[in-house]
């Protein structure tokens, strides 16, 4: 990395903006990763250093959502543990496996997640009606939907694990994927779900960062600059996001998710 006042300011500013974006939606990596590469870091080193640098912002954003997280600690512990396992697998994959095969599916994953967030209100109504119809046939009205809404079930846990794998590997827009899953399979308002998302992404990045620190060199100057910037950005992002209406927050998720998908499509497919 070429050290200059301009480079330091650029990396620090990108960290602040990424902290804001990650707390509101996710996909801040799409901003910071190209900045680190532009400063002269090799892509893999930039990816690992970026992960280390953004952890502080993830937990800063989660702390900003502490009021929405009250009473959800059992769910957070479960989802955090599943995210942790997925993250370890994904981080090991970054070190061991060739990138081409995995990268090919990333744009499609982010695009599908964005469309799911857009369709959440309609899809949740359809899921609730289908579950209630099945419950009436079995003589237990509403039981199946309440069960799904409470903990999500194996389908959600599998999705969280997969999002953890992706987050440990690269992580751009992993928050969009998690919000899509949470919105479909949990009966909570989007602000509460965003708080849980920030915790899970924090766990994913923290586990991957620790693994990278233990087994690979890290570019510590840009990582520390991103850390300082994202710490501030996480607090700003939480203040902004918590004041958004559910519809506006969902619109931001969709807009940034579709933008992330477009960037990734051009990067990997074109």
Written description of the protein model:
This protein is mainly α and 270 residues long. The chain has helices spanning 5-24, 29-38, 43-64, 66-69, 73-96, 99-118, 120-138, 143-151, 153-169, 174-185, 190-215, 220-242, 246-268. Helix 1 (5-24) packs across helix 3.
Overall geometry comes to globular
Taking all Cα atoms into account, the compactness measure Rg is 18 Å
Number of DSSP E strands: 0
Sequence of secondary-structure elements: HHHHHHHHHHHHH
Percent in strands: under 5%
Number of domains: 1
- How many DSSP helices? 13
Extract low-pLDDT stretches.
143-148
Helix content: over 70%
End-to-end CA span: 28 Å
Task: Label the structural class.
Answer: mainly alpha
Look at the structure and give the mean pLDDT. 82
Major beta sheet, specifics?
none
List keywords for this structure.
globular, single chain, mainly alpha, 270 residues
Précis, in short:
Helix content is 85%, strand content 0%.
Q: How are the elements arranged and paired?
A:
Elements: H1 5-24, H2 29-38, H3 43-64, H4 66-69, H5 73-96, H6 99-118, H7 120-138, H8 143-151, H9 153-169, H10 174-185, H11 190-215, H12 220-242, H13 246-268
Helix pairs in contact: 1-2, 1-3, 1-12, 2-3, 3-11, 3-12, 5-9, 5-11, 6-10, 6-13, 7-10, 9-10, 9-11, 10-11
């Amino acid at each position: 990395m070429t050290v200059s006042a301009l480079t330091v300011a650029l990396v620090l500013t990108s960290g602040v903006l990424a902290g804001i974006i990650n707390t509101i939606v996710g996909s801040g990596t799409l901003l910071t990763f190209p900045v680190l590469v532009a400063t002269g870091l090799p892509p893999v080193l930039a990816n690992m250093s970026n992960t280390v640098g953004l952890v502080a912002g993830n937990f800063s954003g989660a702390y900003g959502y502490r009021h929405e997280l009250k009473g959800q600690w059992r769910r957070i512990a479960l989802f955090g543990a599943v995210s942790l396992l997925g993250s370890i697998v994904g981080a090991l994959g970054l070190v061991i496996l060739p990138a081409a095969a995995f990268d090919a599916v990333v744009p499609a994953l982010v695009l599908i997640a964005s469309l799911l967030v857009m369709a959440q209100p309609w899809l949740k109504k359809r899921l609730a009606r289908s579950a209630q119809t099945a419950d009436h046939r079995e003589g237990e009205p509403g039981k199946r939907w309440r069960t799904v809404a409470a903990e999500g079930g194996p389908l959600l846990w599998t999705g969280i694990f997969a999002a953890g794998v992706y987050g440990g590997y690269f992580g751009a827009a992993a928050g969009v994927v998690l919000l899509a899953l949470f919105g479909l399979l949990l009966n909570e308002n989007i602000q509460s779900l965003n708080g849980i998302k920030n915790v899970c992404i924090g766990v994913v990045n923290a586990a991957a960062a620790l693994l990278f620190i233990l087994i690979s060199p890290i570019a510590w100057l840009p990582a520390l600059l991103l850390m300082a910037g994202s710490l501030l950005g996480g607090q700003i992002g939480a203040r902004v996001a918590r004041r958004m209406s559910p519809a506006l927050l969902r619109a931001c998720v969709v807009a940034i998710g579709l933008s992330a998908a477009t960037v990734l499509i051009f990067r990997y497919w074109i």
